[in-house]
Amino acid sequence: MPASSNHPKASADGLDQSRLTHLVGYAASRAAITMKRVFARNFEPLDLKVVEFSILMLVAANPQVNQKQLGEALDISAPNMAVTLDRLVERGWVERVRSTQDRRAMHIHLTSSGRELVERAEKISVTMEAPALRALSAAERALLIELLMKVATGKAARRG
User: Fold this and answer.
1) pTM
2) How do residues 107-126 score in pLDDT, each as one tens digit?
3) Are residues 105 and 98 in contact, defined by beta-carbon separation less than 8 angstroms?
4) Domains recognised in the chain with CATH numbers
5) Any idea what DSSP says for residue 45?
6) For residues 72 and 74, what is the distance between their CA atoms, to the nearest angstrom?
7) Between the CA of residue 156 and those of 146, 153, 159, what are the distances in Å?
């Protein structure tokens, strides 16, 4: 596929990428690498990984969430989710609390330390991507998120 103005032929390292730039997966992967670097740079002071941040945000937004729901939402196996939650418990950010409705079920709750961390992390997350996305207008950014969520879920996104 020939390069066009929307698909640069040469990358910053001088390699011809024209045989890849027509692939959504390639473009998404390249963008993901950039966004992971942005995340790491911004969250290094909090010693927080992407998966931990995602879990904390889901727990903050879903008071009755359990380990299984978190694993399904983030596509994390049960054993890996258990290990990650154990790490969050050890760090004092979450706790497992027995359900009052179903004594067999355990809900994941934020601790006071976890709530403080979520507040700090949310403040960082609001602006951290702006420099990397400066080439996009606000409408383009919203559309990009909507389209990526459509691909991720296989469903049409709701317009807000």
Assistant:
1) 0.83
2) 999 999 999 999 999 999 99
3) yes
4) 1-45 (no CATH), 47-128 (1.10.10.10), 130-160 (no CATH)
5) G
6) 6
7) 9, 8, 9
